[in-house]
Design a protein that fits this description.
The structure holds two protein chains of two kinds. Chain A is mostly helical. Chain A contains nine helices and no strands. The longest helix of chain A is centred in the N-terminal third of the chain and has 33 residues. The longest helix of chain B is centred in the middle third of the chain and has 48 residues. Chain B is mainly α. Chain B is built from two helices and no strands. The N and C termini of chain B lie far apart (75 Å). Classes of the chains: A mainly alpha, B mainly alpha.
């Protein structure tokens, strides 16, 4: 019971608006510190890879972008499902807020992957399982956003786009396991694998910092974007006035 | 310094990757803040309109 009270309180727009506003610096500041330290470590303190030389340093932006693109999609699909099943508008707002962030990181993942593939594989692009499924992820984000913008009515936009988000989530495990299921040019997992990470700590720690930093940055961006969504959706002027919007 | 910038001959792949990452991070921050600013502006306008309607009804 206590959990539900808490959940309902948080899902009330004015309450969420205040809490999320307070949380932004707690996500954004550690995110900035972790990203700066992680990139610094990746460029300066990590040794060159014994096979890939200095080119492997692309991993410090490529892998966190890939992770975020998948995490964002999963978040979006779960939020859309929650919104659809329990009719919680805030959940739809979170899904809508997450899409452009996820799309931008999916694109970053594809672009940096291409820049890494050229010297290592000898090609900018290959229609292989990992690359193709990641490209589909990017198109799913674009489709989701296009579908939302096709409706003037927010409630209908929420429902229609939620169905697309939920159906598309099947692509997430396909991307993750594609390197195991099919012969792929793409290397296997480096961090999450049997027998522990295949990296010495001097390479691994900056990478983990980048993962954590990117994830916290998502949390901060999502707070800002959901607050904006809440403001756009809110038709009740009373609490808007209380917020100082009046 | 030159050795660092050349990245063992991979500089033309490594640096554009980092530049793109910086651009994506900057776009995310800029667009989120712009969204917030626009939403606040619209909310203010709605509150002002609602207030105007209430005033007219009171007359």
């Amino acid at each position: 019971m206590a959990t539900w009270t808490w959940f309902h309180k948080l899902s009330s727009p004015p309450h969420f608006y205040r809490i999320a506003g307070k949380m932004i610096p707690w996500y954004a500041i550690p995110a900035a510190i972790l990203i700066v330290l992680g990139i610094y470590g990746g460029l300066f303190s990590a040794p060159a890879d014994y096979q890939q030389g200095e080119a492997f340093r692309i991993i410090y932006v490529h892998a966190p972008a890939a992770w975020l693109s998948l995490m964002c999609y999963t978040t979006m699909a779960v939020a859309a499902a929650v919104g659809l099943i329990w009719r919680i508008k805030l959940a739809h707002a979170l899904a809508a807020a997450t899409a452009p962030i996820g799309a931008s990181f999916a694109l970053l993942c594809l672009a940096t992957g291409s820049l890494w593939g050229r010297p290592m594989w000898g090609t900018w692009w290959e229609w292989d399982a990992r690359l193709t499924s990641q490209l589909i992820l990017f198109f799913l984000y674009l489709g989701y956003m296009a579908l939302r913008s096709a409706y003037d009515d927010l409630t209908r936009a929420d429902r229609a786009s939620a169905v697309l988000a939920i159906v598309g989530v099947v692509n997430v495990p396909i991307i993750h396991f594609s390197v195991n299921w099919w012969n792929s040019l793409h290397q296997g997992s480096t961090v999450i694998r049997k027998g522990g990470p295949a990296m010495p700590p001097s390479m691994l720690i900056p990478l983990l910092m980048c993962f954590a930093g990117f994830t916290l940055l998502y949390a901060a961006l999502a707070c800002v974007r959901v607050r904006a969504e809440v403001l756009q959706r809110e038709r009740n002027a009373t609490w808007l006035k209380e917020l100082g919007a009046g | 310094m030159d050795a660092f910038l050349s990245m063992g001959g991979y500089g033309r792949f490594v640096w554009p990757s980092y530049a793109l990452a910086a651009a994506v991070l900057a776009w995310n921050i800029w667009s989120a803040l712009r969204l917030q600013r626009n939403a606040l502006e619209h909310a203010r306008r709605r509150v002002a309109i609602a207030r105007g309607d209430a005033d007219r009804q009171a007359l």
